[in-house]
Fold:
Amino acid sequence: MMGTVGSVSAVAKGRDRLGWSVVFETAWSELGRPGDPARVTRLDRGWSTAARTLEQAVGIDEPVRLRNIGADVAVGDWIVPSDDGERVEHVLDRTSAFTRRASFDGMRAVAHTLAANIDVVYLIHALGTPPSPRRLERELVLAFDSGADPVVVLTKTDLVDDPEPARDALVQVALGVPVLLASGITGEGIDAIRDAASGNRTLAFLGASGVGKSTLINALVGDAILATSEVREADHRGRHTTVAAELVPMPGEGWMIDTPGVRAVSLWLSGDGIERAFADVFDLMDHCRFRDCKHDQEPGCGVQRAIADGVLDPVRLSALEALIEEEEALEKEQKARLKAADRRAKDRRRPEVAEFDGMRD
Ligand SMILES: Nc1nc2c(ncn2[C@@H]2O[C@H](COP(=O)(O)OP(=O)(O)OP(=O)(O)O)[C@@H](O)[C@H]2O)c(=O)[nH]1
Ligand SMILES: [Mg+2]
Ligand SMILES: [Zn+2]
Structure:
């Protein structure tokens, strides 16, 4: 290695503060330790802003600016720049990622990773509007699939006299996942959220527009560093104040990723997220008399029995069925796409031409 021991350790220290770990060190080593890795703090229209030091992350020093061309980059990613320093050459394997389907009605499904290399996913819901268990179910599926630990936060406690009924509605679908109470205005619950960042971990904040994600992060930083704005009177919806995800340092240690509010929480290809988010229903299914029970009219159906006994909300069963259908449709579409890409690659192949497959997106 070139350079003095002092400068090497300064680089290493900068990286450590940014959340570098042995996992990334290994991934980078496997690539042959190219370039100087940096962590993506922000994305704008094909450009990544990245940092190698805390000073760069907070804007005291000039951060690194790179083109993404062809690289699938998300905020929180560790990237390696190209030799000319112009673009992102490598994205180091992620330890976790919160990924949803980018749009509902587009022709093809596109993955949108809102935050990468995160330890905790805070699913933010607000009091003052009716709680949305159906939305939380979807968020939990994605959160379990992300590889990070989900925690639900019910914020704006200052708006209601009794937060418990709303909290209970979310606890019902959160199964074992904690449901914390907080307020970005009074500071209630802020310490519990901050504690999760100890050990220099990264916390992601997700939820609908206007629920108070940026306000919570400002409270955690102790300064109004992020823009916030009032929800619309008429429908309590937010105004999409945060337009790009951003990696924000917590004072002391730890990182937070603020994300823009997303309206539709559409599923992306799921691992065991659905099974974990609906563990209660899957447990009931294990008690059906028939292995191929459709949980509809069959005799001895554990699910229908639980509904009849008032143990399971029938809406939750419909929600699960809808999610499974959504997931199956997505898988089918992805398979068809892969097959089509395969076919195109085969058609293009010429024995005398060196193999180059430009089909990666
Ligand atoms: N009373 C009260 N108002 C809050 C609280 N947290 C946020 N708000 C208000 O709710 C509105 C929306 O807050 P933001 O923090 O901008 O919401 P956001 O989730 O970041 O919204 P997007 O950036 O659009 O996704 C602002 O007017 C905040 O002042 C809270 O704990 N209590
Ligand atoms: Mg915001
Ligand atoms: Zn059944």
User: Anything to note?
Assistant: The first helix runs from residue 5 to 17. Residues 285, 288, 293, 295, 298, 301-303 surround zinc ion (ligand 3) (CB under 6 Å). The chain has three domains: 5-91, 97-258, 278-348. The domain at 5-91 is CATH 2.40.50 (OB fold (Dihydrolipoamide Acetyltransferase, E2P)).
